[in-house]
Amino acid sequence: MEKYKSELGVQSNENIKPLYRGVWADDLANNQELPVGGSMFSKELTTKLKLDFEFFDIYLEGFTEENIKSVYEKNKSAVIDWLKSIPSDIDPYTYFVCYQVQNRISNLLKINLDNSDDLSQRQKIYREKGTPKLSELVGNTECAERAVLGKYLFQKAGIKSSYISGITMLDAKDEDEYPENHSFIVFDNPNKDKSTFIFDIARPRSKAQNIPRVLETDVEFNYDLLKNKEDVLVASTEVLQGGRMYFGVGEPVAGYHNVIEKSN
Question: Which residues does residue 244 pair with via DSSP β-bridges, in sequence order?
Fold first, then answer.
């Protein structure tokens, strides 16, 4: 463990745990500095983000577990019918919360759902500010900032979750595919023991309708599965329409990767 703390530049913190070229955060607090990235040529996470959640709290006074449940009860039948039409067996309330979080971060961070994002302005902000505030990146966010704010909204909604930065692939068995550095959210499946969901909040299932991309992992996705590992990807299946994707840790280079899949 100490090896990864020194190499990744991650401060000792029980809520921010080091992973290979990434972090696992079980709780995020206001004014915390979170390592969010670095160079592909270095394992150290030199890029950090200051989490000024208080900037967004003024817009989130009504975003509470009580209010979300109340709105859900009014729309429960429609949510259940829609999921049945897919069909999907995900817990309806769980998916409803993901939908609320997905759309709220889009508004708060001023995400342009119609066009590709311009990464140059985001990179410029990090270069000029050193450790920018989350609020200073509104209008210029990528997966790290979106997953960070999404995880914070999960906290406000009363759902335990974790923020992870690592890598993702469409097909981990394709040795010509390059993994993508990526941040996402993991939370427990409320209806199944030792089952977890990945909320890929930066890549909605449908950009036009901002439909959340939620995936059930083949095995329980937890910190112990990834800690001290330099290459491991876990297969997962989308709860809508069944697409397959892979999430984990490793180098952002093409080639062979260790893959964990559900045994037949």
Answer: 237
pLDDT in tens, 35-72: 998 766 667 788 999 999 999 999 999 999 999 999 99
pTM value surpassing 0.90 = yes
Quick one: which of 42, 8, 19 has its CA closest to 249?
A: 19
Interacting residues of 24 by C-beta distance below 8 A, sequence separation 6+: 16, 17, 18, 162, 163, 164, 223, 226, 227
Distance CA 144, CA 163 (A): 9
Q: How far is CA 213 from the centre of its chain?
A: 10
Residues 175, 180, 181, 186: is their CA dihedral positive or negative? negative
**Closest by CA position to 199, among listed 126, 156, 149:** 149
pLDDT, tens only, 77-87: 999 999 999 99
Separation of alpha carbons 172 and 157, rounded Å: 33
